[in-house]
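[stage:ingest] chain + small molecule (1,3-dihydroxyacetonephosphate)
[stage:ingest] validated
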Amino acid sequence: MIVTTKQLFQHAYGRYAVGAYNINNLEQTVGLFRGNLGKSKSNADPVDAAKSAPFILQISRGARSYTDKRFLEAMIRTADQVFPEVIFAVHLDHGTEEACYDCIESGFYSSVMIDASHEKLPKNIEITRRVVERAHAKGIVVEAELGQLGGVEEDVTGSVCLTDPAEAAEFVEKSGCDSLAVAIGTSHGAYKFAGKQGLHFDVLEEIQKILPKGFPLVMHGSSSVPKEWVERINNAGGKMKSASGVPEEQYLPAAKLGVCKVNIDTDGRLVWCAIHRESFRDDPANFDLRPPGTLFMAAYADYIVHKNTMLGSAGQLEAVRKALKE
Ligand code: 13P
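[stage:predict] done
[stage:export] tokens:
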């Protein structure tokens, strides 16, 4: 069942964060849906309520143009039929104004992100406001961004500029956005921190205090870049040096301060890369795509269960279903 991110945030706020996972292809989609129902090896496995979680499926502009956006839509609609127990939002990640309007008109997305964070405050407000008006007219909710993350996202390379809490209050009031992505020290990609930096909880706390009560915050660049997966990649011929991410133990403290959505893209790519490298290393005569694909879907599903456990969303699916009926 497709719902809006706003509906998911109402249940999560202050208690846990909902995982927002980027997808690009069929194997990722199947692994993601299975993982959020606690299934691993097969679509036919029983649903595991203790592991089941609501989730956000994110589609970037890059994913939409990788093959054709219509493939993604068809795949997700099919996954919704194959896994009828799921509850999720379909969200455009880092949209331009044009991409937002395309998704709003499509009748498929329940949530869009307008990313005008590279603009000065008044222009960011103006653009976001326009998208909010078009989206709300169709019952679609809008995530906006204020402040700049590091790393590369789509075609934009960011240099870190933390969100100013006072500006956040003005931005939320004037733009009418439904959730706000804030820059609190993370960056996109596999190389987030050199040394011991981490999240700026002091800034997050100030932002939560100054915004209207219960206003949902979003954390981009939240992959944890697990050492285990980086090592597996490097042991199978990869060359990823000094990769590091957000410590998973920081997800729940961030959730308690109003972070309702935690964006994970890089970690999924790491799992994909490790499994495929190992599979071809261990069976060099193989040239069939299905053996590594089968292993990847199961490994990705398990990884999603692990991530949801760290986010606190694992085991919340039935409570969300009940809350949606009230
Ligand atoms: P990661 O690169 O840390 O996975 O972040 C993804 C993201 O924020 C997508 O918007």
